[in-house]
Structures are given as C-alpha cells and as structure tokens.
Design brief:
Rna Polymerase Sigma Factor, Chain: A, 2 domains, 7 helices
Length: about 180
C-alpha cells in the first residue's frame, strides 16, 4: 500500500468524522439549504485538494472550519448584489459562536463518553438497551424483567448521574 492510499484513507476517515459538523458550520452561515449543500461539496473538494498541506497531528476540524469560513466569505462576495439575510459582521459573529459551540459540544461529548464508562455495569446495560437498540421503555422493562416504573426511575437516576458527572468534568471538578 502506497503513501497515497494511506493519505486517502486518513482523509476519508477525518472527513467522515467531521462532515456533519462542517456542514452544520456552513449551514449556520448560509441560510439557503441548496447553497449550503453546494458549498459543503466545494469545501470537501478543497479539503481533499489541500490535504497535502494539512499537518498531520494538528486539528483537522479547525483547519476544515477555516477553509469552510473562507469559502462562505467568497460565496457571499460573489452574491454581493443579492439581498443578504446577514451582514458580514453578523456572519463573523456567527462563525465565532459556532466554533465555540462546536468546542463545547465536543468537550461534552468526551465527558459523556468518560462518564458513561464510570457508570455501574447494570446502568450501562440499561442505557445501551434503551438508546443503542432504540427500544421503548416498556420493551426494555420486558427484556430486563423489571417494571416500566422501575425502568423510568432508573433511567431518570442515571440521566441525573451523567448530567452531574458531565458538568463536574467540564467545569474542572472532575469526579474521578
């Protein structure tokens, strides 16, 4: 397998991992869905074309967002004669806010994964049954031999534990 194959696989893995977030970033800045989809395709092609300049080990998401941001600015420049929903200042503010939100969501996602691992095995199994399998509470109750009321209460308790753990982890009061 040549270096080109490795680069292609790495790129596809990174783009797959971040594609929803890149599209979401564009969509916040470009209100028209068709335009946002076209821009996302353009950004994806540009990312692939410039992947040779990407420093491996650095933040692909930030790199991709920056390219997407420039593509949005270029798009807005080309559309300058058309009425705009947002001023350039608002677009810049939205871009910055979206980056902060994405960072916060990523931090919460990592905290959730960590907090999930800290749950008792029985609690993880209940969460897996309910959400991984996309089952209903009555079906989880039937599968576990527990009452529907028990499952609702257990899930409420587990959600509370996860919420507290995530907040403590995010705010530096790591519950480990």
């Amino acid at each position: 397998m040549g270096n080109q194959d490795i680069d292609t696989k790495e790129f596809v893995a990174l783009l797959t991992r971040y594609s929803r977030r890149i599209y979401s970033f564009i969509r916040v800045l470009v209100p028209n869905q068709t335009d946002a989809e076209d821009l996302f395709q353009d950004v994806s092609i540009t990312l692939w074309g410039k992947y040779g300049t990407f420093r491996k080990g650095s933040d692909f998401r930030a790199w991709a967002f920056q390219i997407a941001h420039y593509k949005v600015l270029n798009f807005r420049q080309r559309q300058s004669r058309l009425p705009r929903l947002f001023t350039d200042d608002i677009v810049e503010k939205l871009a910055g806010d979206r980056l902060l939100l994405d960072d916060a969501l990523e931090a919460r996602s990592h905290a959730l994964a960590d907090c999930y691992q800290r749950l008792r095995l029985e609690d993880r199994e209940l969460i897996d049954l309910r959400y991984t399998e996309a089952a209903t509470v009555p079906s989880v109750a039937a599968q576990t031999g527990r009452s529907v009321d028990y499952v609702y209460k257990a899930l409420r308790r587990i959600h509370g534990e996860l919420h507290r753990c995530i907040d403590e982890t995010i705010h530096g009061d790591d519950p480990k």
